[in-house]
Amino acid sequence: MTKHITIRPAEGTWVVRAGGAVLGESNKALELTEGDLPFVIYFPKADIAMAMLDSTDHKTTCPHKGEASYYSIMSKSRTYTDAAWSYEDPKPEVADIKGYIAFYVQDGVMVEQV
To answer: DUF427 domain location, by residue (predicted)?
Structure first.
């Protein structure tokens, strides 16, 4: 793992909601801290209702983690475009996040500890 990134088990149970609907809840989430940025919670994909997400063509590349694939969240009231991301083939130093997904917290999308 790079000195710049720390990954550890997130304490307790975490939930992600979009448009008021629960997309997932997990007690196996990971907390990723990168430099001085706020931590990000990564959920195991197995704990997320992936049927409510639609993969997009959007990609970004992080020099520390690799290429991120993005997903839009489909809720009853709206679509949250590119609101979630995952590293399908992360760099070896951050391999722990393979099979996990994270969400942009925004109006209508919440990630919280319960």
So the answer is: 15-104
